[in-house]
Input
Amino acid sequence: MSKFLRLIRNEWKKEFHKKTLWVMLIVLALFAALFAALASMEETSYDYYYSFEEMCEDEIAWNEEMLNDSGVSTEELDFYRINVECNRIMLEAEMDWNDWRYTLDLARLAVEAKYDGDTDTYEVLCRVIADNDVDGYYAWQMRTYESVYANDVARLRIYTDVVQYCIDNGLVPDPNTEPRYALILDMTENRETVLEQERLKENGGAWSASKLETAQNAVAIAAYQLENGVDVNPADSFDGDVLDGILYGEFTIKKTSSYWDAMAESVSMLSLVSVFVIVLAGSTVANEFSAGTIKFLLITPVRRWKILMSKYATMLLIGVMMCVVVWVMTMLSALMLGAGEAFLPAIFAENGEIRLTSPYLLLLGNYLLAMLEIVVMATLAFAISALVRKSSAAVGITVAADLMGSALSLVLMSLGFDWGRYLLFSNLDFVAIANGTSIYPHQSLVGAIVIVVLHMAVFLLTAYDAFVRREV
Amino acid sequence: MEKEVVLRIEHLSKILGNRKILHDISFEAYAGEVFGFLGPNGAGKTTTIKLIAGLLLPEEGEITVCGYDLRCEFEKALEGVGAIVENPEFYSYMSGLENLRQYAAMRDGVTELRIREVVHLVGLENRIRDKVAKYSLGMRQRLGVAQALMHHPKLLILDEPTNGLDPAGIKALRDILKHLAHEEGVAVMVSSHLMSEMELMCDRVGVISEGRLQSVQPIEALVAATAPEYAEFVLGVDNAERAEALLQTLMDVQASRGEDGALCVTVPSGRSDSLMAVVNRTLILNGISVSTVSKKENRRLEDVFIEMTHKGGDQIE
Output
């Protein structure tokens, strides 16, 4: 075994003899497992603390009270009356939280139609509600579309296609319980966009090529899913707004995979890894000095830069190991909650062509991008530690920089200091820069990589100089 | 017999901060001998050792170990060096054995068997699996020696190795060092501020003071140099006053009265035996009874040491 590998093994052993590292690993494993369990949880059921009947009765009571209030305008009176009436209908129909009629808010549609003078719709919808009649609902929808889009054949096609598909396949029109219905809704939306953009293009309007392409691809994906009976597309979990959906209960039409939601969100756990690696990298050199062990370390027949580099390499290895722990624990935890989705392919489309990829590759890509920042921060902590030989200073400065860095570049940007774009912290978010959503406009990925590499070189040279020439 | 030079130091100077710690130090250490590096606190012993171990860089001068220049061929030079510098500090969260394995991995050719061997040599076998945090200073000193010995160094440097050792430990260490030097041909360099210790284990001694090497000589020469010109004896006699007067008449004998009525006799040390016989006979023949005769050690090694190093640590400079 080469000497350098033996040096790395030495450093590795030292770290694993310390309790700190074990505590960190246990914390990471627990947090990852817990986080995965939370991220993959199904939507909350309100049943638990509030029954549907209670909700309707409360609504009726409150709105009636408001009706009796003096000084209410006629418009507001209508609003309260509609509320009372639609809640009565829902109560009578014995709906529940998960009822498709509630999800589509049919009662409100009906009552509002009545107040608009459309008694036909009111009666039809009341019958649909009373009989829990899905086919009746679709028939009504079909009739409505035919009258609304009578002059627009292309658009009418889109909507009648949808309704026909639902009727043919006997789908319940509820995106929450019927993933295929969610897909259909999503596809309809995108087909509408495609139509709109194509028309703008034909008429010389301001059409957007990227919008058109995105919508076309989304239609292709949804069509593929429907054809092959794939309810969820793991690629959706990597869109970025899934967490908002989970945390704030925002309405997302498409159903995402709970397994892949958890896996994709585990990337945010890597900020914890970042802090841990900063702590370790900030103390590896400093601790040798404070414990006095540096003397025995340096009177061995090994060049100092090799010792330094073995420490650096060990820190990076430990960082990688921590990321693996997060990945594995997330996977184990998520597998227990839903193993069926673990082997689904991620579906993409390019120019309307379907392309299947392993979602694990997507995940790996996200992990690698997040690990880049860990490497930069670890290098900074390592360099400061070699320079000042105080672990507290190295860790403190680096964590502060990590926390405040992006805020600083944001502040500089908002104050109009354009040179802020050349700061390290304005260039760390490679994903945002690649997507064009970075803080400073028009940042290029190549520029960001150059800036980051330059900083890393300065950090490492500082550490090298401080450690190799330092008198002990 | 031509001696093999293991360590050669030429015109070494070192400045730390704005103080010149070492002034133009030159000496050699040979295979098969224990070289003592003697000096008061702050004289520059540890600085010299740190320079040899590569922990510091010299301002001027050259250090050669086993023929390799320390600056140009650092790794080759240090392969032949084992050292303890200042206090032996280890990774306290690991056992002694694991600590030794760390250093073994940084050197070539140190087997597990060799580690066992040095552990046995320094007498730590029973405690080697304990965490170093539980070791006493003496035990860490022993572990330090094991660390310095494991790779069969040509040059062994120990900075005040008897610190914290009990008398039995000091004796054991002395035996180990003598064995290494005289039987295995290692060049051993030991620093100390205790001359008596040097006398017991060193073959040659270099005396350093205020950053200057005062002398390098064999221990016998140093001991001889410390031997006084005159020997002083204290005699218990019944009539000191008369005895004094009697002895004044003798050639080369000086006599005086001490405070407690004892008689002090000073004779040239080279002829002390014959002269004291004359003194004794003179007193007895004149009817003065001599109850005791004792030699007074008025000039000890330590006094010479203090004299040689000018100040002897009055004030740390």
The mean pLDDT of chain B is 87. Chain B touches chain A at residues 16, 50, 53-57, 74-79, 81, 83, 85-94, 98, 102-103, 105-108, 144, 147 (CB under 8 Å). Chain B has eleven helices and 14 strands.
